[in-house]
Amino acid sequence: MLKAVIVDTSAVARGLLNTVLLDGGYDVVGQGHTGASAIALMVKHQPQLVCIARDVFDADEASVAELRKGWPKSLIFMVSSEFDAATVQKAHAMGVNGFIVKPFNAGTVLNTIRNTVIAMVKRQQKALAEQNGGEAPGG
Q1: How many CA atoms lie within 13 A of 99 on its CB side?
Q2: What is the pLDDT of residue 138?
Q3: Alpha carbons 135 and 59: distance in angstroms, whole number
Q4: Pairing of β 49-53 and β 75-80
Q5: Which distant-in-sequence residues (6+ apart) come within 8 Å of 78 by Cβ?
Q6: Closest Cα partner for 24 from 97, 96, 88, 100?
Q7: What whole-number distance in Å separates Cα of residue 97 and Cα of residue 83?
Q8: pLDDT of residue 124
Q9: 14 vs 3, 18, 69, 114, 133, CA distance in Å?
Q10: For 79-107, what is each residue's pLDDT tens digit?
Q11: How far is 34 from 53, CA to CA, in rounded Å?
């Protein structure tokens, strides 16, 4: 079971996303509302998934950069009700792996996370195969 941390300034949004993730089989190990709380939760729980609201990104880019540097294998998802091209581009540059749209649709959220995890595993398998001079497992 993958562990997840949710960081959002809205307690309601944290609660809703918590329910979606728990119902989807994820282990939500912590919730916070600031970049600093995200770092503390990462140190304590070492989760594989981090869902961070856009306003937390905007308020504390240094903490987000520290998350990416300190936990390079964790998947970071930006959570917001709106995404424009500049935001998506900046988020990708900061190491964001995926985007979760508010209001939450449980099926869409779980598919987004699942597809991102699968894509990451495929990239890792390909890199490992290239490193070993062979083909990736499964094709």
Answers
A1: 16
A2: 55
A3: 43
A4: parallel
A5: 52, 53, 54, 57, 87, 91, 96, 98, 99, 100
A6: 100
A7: 14
A8: 87
A9: 15, 6, 24, 19, 44
A10: 999 999 999 999 999 999 999 999 999 99
A11: 9
Q: Return the structure tokens found at 124.
A: 């890792």
Tell me which residue has tokens 């959002």.
Answer: 8
Q: How far apart are CA 43 and CA 56, in angstroms?
A: 18
Q: Which two tokens stand for residue 102?
A: 């508010």
Q: pTM for the whole thing? A: 0.90
Task: Identify the three-state secondary structure at position 139.
Answer: coil
- Residues 84 and 67 sit within 8 Å (Cβ to Cβ): no
| 133 Ramachandran zone, left/alpha/beta (phi>0; psi -120 to 50) | left
**Cα–Cα distance between 77 and 7 in angstroms, integer?**
10
On whether the CB atoms of residues 22 and 65 are closer than 8 A, the answer is: no
Contacts of 57 (CB under 8 A, 6+ apart): 64, 78, 91, 94
Model pLDDT, residue 133 = 77
Output the pLDDT for position 49: 96
The two structure tokens encoding residue 64 = 């987000």
Q: What is the CA radius of gyration of the chain?
A: 15
